[in-house]
Amino acid sequence: DQQVKQNSPSLSVQEGRISILNCDYTNSMFDYFLWYKKYPAEGPTFLISISSIKDKNEDGRFTVFLNKSAKHLSLHIVPSQPGDSAVYFCAASVGTGGFKTIFGAGTRLFVKA
Amino acid sequence: NAGVMQNPRHLVRRRGQEARLRCSPMKGHSHVYWYRQLPEEGLKFMVYLQKENIIDESGMPKERFSAEFPKEGPSILRIQQVVRGDSAAYFCASSPRDRPTGELFFGEGSRLTVL
Asked: How far is Cα B79 from Cα B67, in angstroms, rounded to an integer?
């Protein structure tokens, strides 16, 4: 049962343009959502998070939008840079404390120079 | 280095052997999580531990896999009688008791190859 879904395995974007990565979830108990970035042969690194009481969180070039009614979140990267090329994982948890975090399958982003 | 330390980074085992993967959490972190990434797939939750306690092992295969996080020393993920399907990257993550941003801190992973 995939509780967190990233339906696009890959995305290709031109440098300077906007990258939009999407994520859907099914468990209405999730109330904390995160995005991680992963380079080959490295561990995932935290990028940005949002709690369910918000609908937007922004950090520099990265913005996460949450639509609770649609159980959908998205990560916007603008402007995209070649160094952003990586696999992006969407993740969700129930609260921030002692609960497991569930990850999506990931979307591989290619930013072309 | 104050990050999450995993070793070995690469491990090769023949079918039927045992694999032991170790994880030292970040200093001050008392919660450890193990995830598995099969080739071309996402991160699958395996187990969540606190010191001397298994909190959630719902992602662990029922047989051959075990995990511990003793009072002293690293967390260990143990795979007995490995099979080719166990070949994967195993990632450990840690967190403090309180996670204001929900963030997990990951190690660089241990890549297991079963011949």
From this structure: 9
